[in-house]
């Protein structure tokens, strides 16, 4: 048996331990709120000693960051799927699909996963971190810039920041305040007009 094979059971146990810690963290955030999340309480809920928690995470914030990063990775995978399967139609159709995906990510659904998304969204804001949806907004700009057969001009850093922040912050605000507009076609259309208007103005201004 090779050395790498001998290590597999230990590595698998470590992975399972980390998964349990993160899953329990998510459960606490969803059911009890961020204020209840302490390393001591987490250890009791997960069935581990406090030493086990600290073996993998040096402090509470590191656990939260790991959970946010896991959400970001899932978002990256969704982005890759969306971009890979963009239709062959015009740029507006492609941008609508990306806006729809971003809109859907924020739309209210009464389930634990969505409540977890909201909890992590608040924590990401509190830590000054980009939310998972930021990657999708940036993909929208990239698709515009790389669009085949378009006259899309490259956005500068300021324009990219303003557009992505405007789009994401509108959705964040609607999400955190429980707006009934989320999930509606009317809201999606308004978001698309925001994006198209900004991109077209940027293109025309560069002529």
Automatic annotation (TrEMBL):
Name the UniProt record assigns to this protein: TetR family transcriptional regulator
Entries under InterPro entries matching the protein: Homeodomain-like_sf, HTH-type_TetR-like_transc_reg, HTH_TetR
Keyword DNA-binding: yes
Residues in the DNA-binding region annotation: 38-57
Pfam families cross-referenced by the UniProt entry: TetR_N (PF00440)
GO molecular function, one term: transcription cis-regulatory region binding
Lineage: Bacteria, Pseudomonadati, Pseudomonadota, Betaproteobacteria, Burkholderiales
Organism: Duganella guangzhouensis
Gene3D superfamilies for the chain: Tetracycline Repressor, domain 2 (1.10.357.10)
UniProt keyword annotations, A-Z: DNA-binding
Keyword Amino-acid biosynthesis: no
């Amino acid at each position: 048996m090779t050395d790498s094979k001998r290590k597999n059971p230990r590595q698998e146990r470590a992975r399972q331990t980390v998964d349990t810690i993160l899953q329990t963290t998510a459960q606490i955030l969803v059911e009890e709120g961020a204020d209840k999340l302490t390393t001591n309480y987490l250890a009791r809920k997960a069935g581990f000693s406090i030493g086990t928690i600290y073996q993998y995470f040096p402090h509470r914030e590191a656990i939260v960051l790991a959970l946010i990063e896991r959400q970001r990775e899932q978002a990256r995978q969704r982005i890759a799927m969306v971009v890979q399967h963009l239709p062959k139609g015009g740029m507006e159709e492609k941008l609508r699909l990306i806006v729809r995906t971003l809109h859907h990510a924020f739309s209210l659904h009464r389930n634990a996963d969505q409540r977890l998304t909201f909890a992590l969204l608040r924590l990401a804001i509190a830590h000054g971190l980009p939310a998972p949806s930021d990657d999708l907004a940036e993909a929208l700009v990239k698709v515009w810039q790389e669009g085949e057969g378009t006259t899309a001009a490259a956005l500068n850093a300021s324009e990219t920041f303003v557009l992505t922040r405007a789009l994401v912050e509108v959705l964040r605000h609607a999400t955190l305040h429980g707006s009934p507009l989320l999930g509606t076609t009317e809201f999606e259309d308004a978001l698309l007009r925001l994006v198209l208007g900004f991109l077209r103005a940027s293109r025309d201004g560069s002529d």
